Structures are given as structure tokens and as C-alpha cells.
Amino acid sequence: MRLGTEAALARVVNVFGAAKPHHAYLFANRRANRMKVLVHDGIGVWLAARRLNAGKFSWPLGGTSTQSLTRVQLDALVLGLPWQRLGEAGIIRTI
């Protein structure tokens, strides 16, 4: 979590080959209570940090390096909410 903007951007380029415009790249600590978000807005990049005082961020299982999220899911993740239950995954089809 000591990464600055340049180091985070370098890690994104090393892992994904490039930082794509209008994409966000999230980094978390081992305890999952801190997160940094690197965003390429099409003009430049910016880095934001968030720390939860209680609880943990909910990360996908399986150790995959990429995960596509909708805007609503990303907003929920940043707030520390269970983002996996939003969108299609949260639809109730039977009673």
C-alpha cells in the first residue's frame, strides 16, 4: 500500500500490458481494510485511497487478476458494501 501514482501505474502496465483509458485498477492490502484505486480518465491518471475503520472490503475469490464491475458494483465496493449482490446476481426469480 506504499505505492504512489507512478509505481501503481508501472505495476498496471507490467501486469496488463497497458493502462486503458476509462478503466480503474484497484489495489488492496492483505487485511482488505485499505484500497487504492488508479484511474486513467483518458487525459491522465489519478490515485485515490480509502481505509475502512471497521470491516473489510469484499474481494472476488479465486485470485484472478481481472474482474469486470459495473459502475454500481464499483461504487458499492468502494463503500465497503457487498457488491456481488448487485445487478444480475441480486435478481430474485422465484419465491
From TrEMBL:
Source organism superkingdom: Bacteria
Protein name: IS66 family insertion sequence element accessory protein TnpB
InterPro entries: Transposase_IS66_Orf2
The gene coding this protein: tnpB
Short name of any one Pfam family annotated for the protein: TnpB_IS66
